[in-house]
UniProtKB/TrEMBL annotation:
<protein>
    <submittedName>
        <fullName>FAD-dependent oxidoreductase</fullName>
    </submittedName>
</protein>
<dbReference type="InterPro" id="IPR036188">
    <property type="entry name" value="FAD/NAD-bd_sf"/>
</dbReference>
<dbReference type="Pfam" id="PF07992">
    <property type="entry name" value="Pyr_redox_2"/>
</dbReference>
<dbReference type="InterPro" id="IPR051169">
    <property type="entry name" value="NADH-Q_oxidoreductase"/>
</dbReference>
<feature type="domain" description="FAD/NAD(P)-binding">
    <location>
        <begin position="4"/>
        <end position="300"/>
    </location>
</feature>
<dbReference type="InterPro" id="IPR023753">
    <property type="entry name" value="FAD/NAD-binding_dom"/>
</dbReference>
<keyword id="KW-0285">Flavoprotein</keyword>
<keyword id="KW-0274">FAD</keyword>
<keyword id="KW-0560">Oxidoreductase</keyword>
<keyword id="KW-0614">Plasmid</keyword>
Length: 382
């Protein structure tokens, strides 16, 4: 009897599997993909927000990868796992039988208390597409007041988002008041010189970075800061870090303190070797790797090999995470900062390199492309 493989999530880690899904079918598997959305590439997300690319450049059509391969695509959301029946349960009640399951559920920022309709999370990336559309729509309207934007979170993502919002407002010739709120010293996880250069860039771009200031809740017309000070704003961006979605902790599989699925060296759940999990939603071999696409992308070929090994009954191979990776933080259309370990550089060549690497990566998944580049996504996680 053929084995049923179910892949949930069309993220950075599953993209390579989707491109090669026909090979699993040819090995005799009945393969089903559950995808909420198409693939959105986070490496180009801030550049897309800043107007460097149109949204469609940051996007890969999942149907185009799956159609015609013999695998089945379900557009939907997984809400539970029935482990005794070996079934994935989707929103709406549909159940899909799985002998082997692979979970690529990604991550989202922890919700801000009192979240309202004007809060945009930095993930899923689609919400940044909606943010750009909302801003551009406002500028097309009659209102000429400058938009007031609060970016909550002073990590790499919050800073990169703020710089690219300025790039967007410059590109359109509109004013925008941008404030970044950081609970602790901003950019404390990168080399001090690089952090100082980024903060100088923000100051020159007239972006206010306030710290130590915690946003304690979201109000109808702005944010409430610690000490109870209200701050009016039109748009709030949640860039407070990335956590696995709530679902991971509800699957009945071992998770760490963040709710990340604990997997072994072969990317299999510590509680069930027929369940694989990859990317931001896992704690790898008892420790948490940075939530960076770099790891998700590099896990992909190992996952593929191990799914094939599980089908053929051969031994799996281990994933060995790299210790360091190149991070390139885009600052709009002119410059970027690249960092590897303690070494960093700021200037237009860094942006040129980032664009080349990122374009090569997404092009590898366009219909008709024969090559893929696992090391392409190269930046730092927030
Ligand atoms: C603005 C921003 C920029 C970033 N830039 C970089 C960068 O340049 N380089 C880098 O290395 N990292 C970057 N990161 C981090 C990077 O986004 C993540 O590490 C990466 O997305 C992780 O990939 P993944 O495969 O785990 O998940 P994702 O690519 O997020 O995919 C998760 C998938 O799971 C699906 N899903 C979730 N829940 C369900 C469900 N219940 N049912 C069905 N499907 C579900 C989602 O729809 C999504 O398709 C950035 C992050 C942000 C926020």
């Amino acid at each position: 009897m053929s084995k049923r493989i179910v892949l949930v999530g069309a993220g950075h880690a599953h993209l390579h599997i989707l491109k090669n899904i026909g090979a699993l079918v040819r090995l005799g598997a009945e393969v089903t993909v559950v995808a909420q959305d198409d693939f959105w590439y986070s490496g180009m997300a801030t550049g897309m927000l800043g107007g460097l690319f149109p949204p469609e450049a940051d996007h890969v059509n999942v149907s185009a990868l799956v159609n015609g391969t013999g695998a089945t695509l379900h557009r939907g959301t997984m809400i539970a796992l029935d482990r005794s029946a070996r079934e994935v349960v989707l929103e709406g009640g549909r159940r899909i039988g799985a002998d082997l399951l692979s979970l690529n559920l990604g991550s989202v920022p922890p919700p801000l208390p009192g979240m309202g309709q004007s809060v945009y999370a930095v993930k899923p990336v689609r919400s940044l597409v909606e943010l750009r559309q909302r801003i551009e729509e406002y500028w097309r309207g009659a209102d000429t007041d400058p938009l007031r934007v609060a970016v909550v979170g002073g990590g790499v993502t919050g800073i990169e988002i703020a710089a690219n919002l300025r790039a967007l407002s410059d590109r359109h010739g509109h004013c925008m008041d941008i404030t970044v709120y950081s609970r602790s010293e901003p950019l404390r996880r990168i080399p001090r010189g690089a952090a100082a250069a980024l903060l100088r860039h923000l100051r020159t771009a007239n972006i206010d970075v306030r710290w130590p200031v915690a946003v304690t809740s979201i109000k109808e017309c702005g944010v409430l800061l610690d000490g109870g000070t209200p701050q009016d704003c039109d748009i709030i961006i949640n860039a407070t870090g990335l956590m696995p979605p709530d679902l991971t902790a509800r699957l009945g599989l071992p998770v760490d303190g963040d709710g990340a699925l604990i997997v072994d060296r072969f990317l299999r759940s510590a509680g069930d070797t027929s369940v694989f999990a990859v990317g931001d939603c896992v704690a790898f071999d008892g420790r948490s790797l940075p939530r960076a696409g770099v790891y998700a992308v590099r896990q992909a070929p190992i996952l593929f090999a191990n799914l094939a090994a599980a089908l053929s009954g051969t031994p799996p191979i281990p994933f060995v995470p790299q210790r360091r990776f190149l991070a390139i933080i885009g600052l709009g259309h002119r410059s970027a900062v690249m960092i590897r370990g303690p070494v960093w550089f700021k200037g237009p060549p860094a942006l040129w390199l980032k664009r080349w690497i990122d374009q090569r990566f997404v092009d590898g998944y366009r219909p008709g492309s024969k090559t893929t580049h696992h090391s392409a996504l190269n930046q730092m996680s927030p």
